[in-house]
Design goal:
The protein is mainly beta and 307 residues long. It folds into 2 domains: 141 residues, no CATH class; 159 residues, no CATH class. The protein contains 4 helices and 19 strands. The strands form 5 sheets. The chain has a 4-stranded antiparallel β-sheet with strand order 4-5-6-7, with no helix packed on it. Strands 8-9-10-11 form a 4-stranded antiparallel β-sheet, with no helix packed on it. A hairpin with a 5-residue loop joins strand 4 and strand 5. The longest helix is centred in the C-terminal third of the chain and has 15 residues.
Length: 307
């Protein structure tokens, strides 16, 4: 669905929320009613079979006076979930409770996902908060990230360089790069053997199931990769294809400033599905994008390159 919610439109309006429906012959943009409370950017969008859309925003906290005039729950404190339904044209705000294993709000939302009536607020360091719009209880669910993806408990570096959580074929999917050196470490000029790898998991039956693992040293030895004559850098900033399982897009640096390529690799077969031209300053561009935006940019780029 090429439908999105824009919370940073220019020129800036007072409430900043617009719904763009771009999957019809004549794209339409709708201005949403003003949402209570301060401006937020952790917005989720869910398409329903009826053709209507649900917009959800999870707020760290709200005071009761901000909810005057809005439909709300009986709770009076804690995180607040604001939901807009295009079928009613109204916001519904309800206080929600954190999972029992989380004693306080310590959440930095990297991306918001939506699938099958559920919203997921992903923190690449801490885990995933989730909520089913049909549930009656005010409890947020919690999904931990694969424990194996935390190397020796080190979680203080920029996770987006090595980790991504997204939806693929209706399943919650996580990919993680296991690296020992920085992204500009050229194994082609070093005597050190590369043991770095990438793994991908799917959330099934209430636990993470490992789908496959690929070692980068084996990828470099494959003819499609070695024939390009590019440096042996471990890729970064993985994004998951929304439709093809085990297909992951990566940023591959060239070693020259922040230039690089975007490649798409099927992890199980090690087949390179996409290979873009060298892009000047690509790393700075990737670092400035949200995970979902980068994934969409990759998809559009390769659609344009297709014959």
């Amino acid at each position: 669905m090429h439908t999105s919610v824009d919370s940073g439109t220019y020129p800036r309006f007072s409430h900043k929320y617009f719904l763009l429906k771009n999957d019809v012959p004549t794209p339409k943009i709708y201005r949403l009613p003003e949402m209570p409370g301060p401006h937020e950017i952790n917005i989720g969008l869910l398409h329903q079979e009826s053709g209507h859309y649900i917009v959800a925003v999870l707020k760290e906290t709200m005071i009761s006076s901000m909810l005057s005039g809005y439909k709300k729950s009986k709770l009076t404190e804690g995180p607040c979930l604001c939901i807009f339904d295009t079928s009613t044209g109204k916001w519904e705000c309800k206080y929600v409770t954190l999972p029992g294993n989380l004693t306080s709000w310590n959440w930095d939302i990297d991306v918001v996902l939506a699938n099958d009536n559920r919203f997921y607020w992903v923190d690449l360091h801490c885990g995933i908060l989730c909520y089913d719009i049909n549930q009656l209880e005010p409890d947020l669910g919690f999904i931990p990230l694969p424990s194996e993806s935390f190397q020796d408990g080190e979680i203080d570096y920029h996770m987006r360089e090595d980790r991504c959580v997204s939806i693929c074929n209706g399943e919650l999917t996580c990919v993680h790069i296991f690296r020992k050196n920085h992204i500009f470490f050229d194994y082609g000029t070093k005597s050190q053997q590369c043991e770095d790898s990438v793994k991908i998991w799917s959330w099934r039956y209430r636990h993470w199931v490992e789908d496959c693992e690929m070692k980068f040293a084996e990828l470099w030895e494959s003819r499609p990769y070695s024939s390009k004559g590019v440096p042996k850098f471990v890729p970064a900033y993985p994004t998951i294809d929304h439709h093809f399982p085990n297909l992951v897009n990566f940023f591959v640096p060239t070693g020259h400033l922040c230039n690089g390529y975007v490649i798409g690799v099927h992890l199980r077969s090690m087949e390179i599905q996409y290979w873009g031209e060298e892009y000047e300053g690509l790393l700075n561009h990737v670092r400035g994008l949200e995970i979902f935006e980068f994934s969409e940019t990759v998809a559009k780029y390769y659609q344009q390159q297709a014959p």
